[in-house]
């Protein structure tokens, strides 16, 4: 391991000596190339930061929307229960109960879809953050 590191150090020293021995115009060209590369990486980092912030904001917005939808589902479920109690008192008809169950199942499906969407966005956000860290 020490020999390997020593060899790498010698290689880097050789590269440094080679750059020192280069004519000034080649040094300037290398500096310009490195500055251009740095500018591109900074631009990519800024773009990535903006995308991450945007995804984070969208994730929070979807979480609030999901909470609101869940609250609405609970409210509708309570309303359906009250309606069923009233209808049960008036009649033992099964059709309204089946209809309310269908509505409730549809609302539950919508909530599940939103949760899946949030999970997907959170995963995408996590992957973008990993890419940003890698860059």
Could you give the topology of this structure?
Elements: H1 2-21, H2 24-90, H3 95-134
Concise description?
The protein is mostly helical and 135 residues long.
Rg, Å, rounded? 31 Å
Structure annotation, total helices: 3
Gross geometry: rod-shaped
Which range does the strand content fall in? under 5%
**What can be said about the biggest beta sheet?**
none
Number of strands: 0
- Mean pLDDT rating: 82
Order of helices and strands: HHH
Please identify the oligomeric state.
single chain
What percent of the residues sit in helical stretches (DSSP H or I)? over 70%
**Terminal Cα span:** 28 Å
Q: Which structural class matches the secondary elements?
A: mainly alpha
- The tally of domains stands at 2
Q: Which stretches are low in confidence, meaning pLDDT under 50 for 5 or more residues running?
A: none
Biased composition (Basic and acidic residues): 1-14
Region (Disordered): 1-24
Protein name: TNIP2 protein
Keywords: Coiled coil
């Amino acid at each position: 391991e020490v020999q390997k590191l020593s060899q790498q150090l010698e290689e880097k020293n050789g590269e440094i000596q080679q750059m020192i021995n280069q004519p000034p115009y080649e040094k300037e060209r290398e500096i310009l190339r490195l500055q251009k590369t740095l500018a591109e990486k900074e631009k990519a980092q800024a773009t990535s930061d903006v995308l991450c912030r945007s995804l984070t904001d969208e994730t929070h917005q979807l979480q609030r929307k999901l909470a609101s939808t869940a609250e609405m589902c609970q409210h509708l479920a309570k309303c359906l229960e009250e309606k069923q109690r009233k209808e049960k008192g008036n009649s033992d008809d099964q059709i309204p109960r089946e209809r309310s169950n269908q509505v409730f199942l549809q609302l539950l499906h919508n909530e599940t879809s939103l949760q899946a969407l949030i999970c997907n966005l959170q995963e995408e956000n996590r992957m973008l953050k990993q890419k940003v860290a890698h860059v």
